[in-house]
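Objective 1.3, modelling of assemblies. Example input:
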Amino acid sequence: MSTAIKKQNGGEGAKSVVPRRPILVCGGAGFLGSHLCARLLAEGEPVLCVDNFCTSDPESVEHLLSHPNFELMRGDVMSLDEGQFGDVAAIFNLACAASPVLYQRNPLDTFFSSVRGVDTLLRVARRCGVKLFQASTSEIYGHPTVHPQSERYWGHVNTVGPRACYDEGKRCAETLCFIYRQEFGVAARIARIFNTYGPGMSLQDGRVVINFISQALSDAPLTVYGDGTQTRSFCYVDDLIDGIMRIMGAPEDFGGPVNIGNPAEIRVRELAERVIKLTGSRSRIQMRPLPVDDPPRRRPDISLAISALDWRPRTDLDAGLMMTIRDVQRRLRRGDMSLRGTKELSSAATPLAGVNAI
Ligand code: NAD
Ligand code: UDP
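Predicted structure (tokens):
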């Protein structure tokens, strides 16, 4: 079941006046999805955004609702009927919780959002004869034994750990894309996205950059998990969206998977120190236990993205962090979300909605 939240002509069931076949963006109200919808609209494309709001809410795309080419629908990719969409011009699938603290709250929903979701969307792509973009992840490399990670590396993933619902769901989704490509010629294109941050992330998301910025701006301790020597490589959201657009604009025979991320690697503890410095905060660092199966190192080899797509990230970490800090400051001033919610996140038990919610 899906529900139209806003149709540009104002009525559910009324004939849409969107002039051309829309681009379907599933998970379009999330952090990356909302940036992607904005970019597609700016390029003149009509957009149909479908989301079940399990990690976002309609307010995340409030700024897009008045756009005449934007349509928002509440729907769950796990239970969508492939026949309920008319013709679409392309499909972007980003529908899956991405923050470890959120995707582990309801592992069945996380797993099946990836698996059932992409299966249904691949069938829509096949029927419409259009390209499908699949948001895969660096998590498919698991605890990498190869560094940096190139697409040729098959990964090292625990199938029975707390991250498996996400990692294995995403690996399975890649396999489904591969099968539909081989068997039915569906133009499925896969990006393995490495840690991405930027303006618009929910203050309750729980991922490291937004946690550190929220904590620093309230002079609360920055929670560094483990000893903080684990590394990540952070990509600014505008660079990432540019990469996604290039993947979808690439020649017919390009399907990926391709790594999209910023190879500048940093230890988590150094990230905390950087955020404290950039915010001018009086916060100190507080060590917390390392979550189970937290990958120790992560850095993309982006040679393929450079050679095949002429893509490389442009925004360095300090510049990207400053833009994110200013955005959080603005939102806090507007009273968008209390900092209290962010600090309580790790202990709160908020069941997510969905067909598999327990
Ligand atoms: P996000 O949690 O902000 O956005 C995900 C969106 O998908 C949310 O709006 C959520 O409500 C929606 N969603 C989840 N399950 C759904 C379902 N069953 N049906 C419909 N909508 C559903 O996360 P994000 O950072 O924007 O990530 C977007 C995509 O990119 C995800 O697929 C994620 O795995 C992938 N990715 C993101 C990163 C990153 O660093 N941001 C890294 C690797 C991969
Ligand atoms: N992390 C941390 N403090 C936080 C949140 C995360 O130290 O408040 C660490 C986490 O243990 C991991 C890294 O930061 O090593 C990145 O975590 P995130 O949840 O952003 O994404 P991941 O890359 O683990 O999927």
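The CA atoms of residues 202 and 327 lie 11 Å apart.
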